[in-house]
Structure formats: structure tokens, C-alpha cells
């Protein structure tokens, strides 16, 4: 007979002396456990899921009949040798991963782009378009949008960078004529040599060779651009492959899991991919809105090099939570080259925009994304950025959400049985 204790909603919890079948039933019906919507799966994955559920039930009955085996070390030397060999293999694997880090970055970037485009493909499928045609439409639209934006942005950036290099010495010297600088120098000039700092800055930006050093040299800059274009082409090709074979890849991954555990893996994986897809597309949408509205504002109030700054705002806005704040600081600092009033207007605009984004835009655009506590967002973004740069900061939040999802739906229910 199975004993029960406590109550959680309408669910009863078997005690640790209850049989494994009752415990499995509790874990399967726990309020935090979310099962996949079978209508969203293709026929093969749906059949695999149902077969796994049956296999899991059979496995639980077999476990209930089989007595637990004690772990006994019969050959300590053999165990030690096996553990040592495992450590060596892990070290070799880590070295291989380090050597292949660039390729792994391409694969991860392409996978996340594919997951970001997949919700649009699914939406077209629901409208009656078959998946291959939907993929062709979405991918072609994606490439055309990227090409169009680059065709507009690259000439503008090149022109504004040229203007920046030419006008940088004048911009630095004009700061000394600003009333706010004179007031700042009068108040704190005895502690900080502002004139000396500006003189150093003017000498630096006035020499073309210093700009070459900042850019890493013309040759290195050219190599960097070529590598970036090559990486972008590789990511696009991999994105098309992942988008076309996403369901096949997931099914292949499911087959690597024991048959009795596939249903739980399918539950978690489908939630993660849906959440990641919504997150990526949502972040790009928010960053695009941020940069376009910011460009309009900067053009109206007279922030110098508005187009170049708007591109920087877009890149920063992709970084969760702290990206908008960093963009605000960037725009305000650039606005100081025009006047304190311009910088103040830009800062006030972004403070208002961040509130609208947080309470209006984000809830509507990111409504399907798993929420992550703010502290974990900051920690995840910093850790991901330190390890993998901008891409690491972008993928840190979905990875954190995935870990939280697994903890909430797998680990926590099992802990409640102990």
C-alpha cells in the first residue's frame, strides 16, 4: 500500500517509502512540469513521444519489482585506472574544443539564428504554406533585409567615419570653448588638469598614424573585414541547413537518449527551442526599434554622427538588461560634443524609452520567453560576455533560462520526494 503525505493543490505526494510507480506518477503530474503540445510535433516525433511514455511506464514497473543493488568496489586499481583515463580523455576533449572554438562559434551562432527564424516559419505553416516553401520565403526575406540594411548602413558608416577622422581634432578643441567645460574647469581644475587631458587627446586624434594603430593597421583591418564576411557567409549557410533540418536534428538528438527517458527530453527541448526562438527574434526586434527611434531622435536634436551611433545602439541593445543603459551612456557622451543640452535631451529620451520598452514593448514582444530573474540576467550576461564576447552575452540568457527550466521541472520535484 502506498502512503501519502501533505498536499500541493490537487496533487498528492507519495512518501519516500512509497513505490516507484507512484513517485513517477507524482513527478509526471507535478504542477511545475509542462508537457509538450503534441499538435505542435510532427508525426514521427509524436509517435516517438508516445512510445517513450509507454516505455517509461514499463521501466517504472520493472524498477519497482527489481531490488536496489549495492555499489561495491571490487577492483580498486581498475577503478582508479578508469577514472584517470576518463580525466585524460576530458582534458583531450577540452583541448580539441579550444582548437575548434571558431567553428563552434559559427555553429552556435547559426543555430540561434535558425531558432530565431523558426517561429516565423511555423507561423507560415499555420497559414497553409508547406515548410520547404516557408523556409525559402523566410530565409530569402532574411537575406534581403540584411543585404538592404548593409547597403544603406555601410556607405553611411564609411562616410561618417571619414568625417569623424577629419573633424575629430576640431571637435576636441571646440570642447574648450563650451561654457560647461569652462565651469567644470573652474570647479575642479585644481584637482584635474582638463586642459592637459584635452591637449593629449587632440595630439592623439590629430595624427593619422594613431588612427591606424587604433584600427590595428590597414592590413589587419582588411583581414578582419574579410574574416568577418567569410564568417557571415558560413553562418548564413549553416543557418539555412539548420532551418531546413531542425526537426530532423531534434529527432536525431532524441534517439541518443534512452527510450524510457525521451518523453521528458522532448518536453524540455521543445520548450527550450520555442523559448530561444522567441527570445532571439524578440531581442532583434527590440534592438531594431531602439536604434531606429534613437536615430530619429538624434537627427532631430543634433547628436553628431547619428547614423554611426545608431549602429552602436543596435549592437548594445542586443545585450540584455544592461544594453539599453550602455546605449544611453553612449548617446549622452556623444551628445556632449554638440552641447550639454543635446546630451541632456538624449539622456531624458532614453530614460523615457527604457520605461516604455520595459512596460509596453517587452511584455508584448517577449511574451513567450521564459522569464529569468534580473540578478541572473546580469550574472549570465557578464559571464557569457567574458567567455565568448557579444555572442556569449546574447546566448547567456537562453542558456540560463534552460538551466532554470530543468531545475524547476526535473530537480525540484524530485527534491520534494526526499
UniProtKB/TrEMBL annotation:
Keywords: Cell membrane, Membrane, Transmembrane, Transmembrane helix, Transport
Short name of any one Pfam family annotated for the protein: AI-2E_transport
GO terms under biological process: transmembrane transport
Subcellular location: Cell membrane
Keyword Transmembrane: yes
The keyword Secreted appears for this protein: no
Segments traversing the membrane: 79-97, 103-121, 133-158, 218-244, 325-353, 390-411
Major localization class: membrane
Family according to the record: Belongs to the autoinducer-2 exporter (AI-2E) (TC 2.A.86) family.
Protein name: AI-2E family transporter
UniProt lineage: Bacteria, Bacillati, Actinomycetota, Actinomycetes, Micrococcales
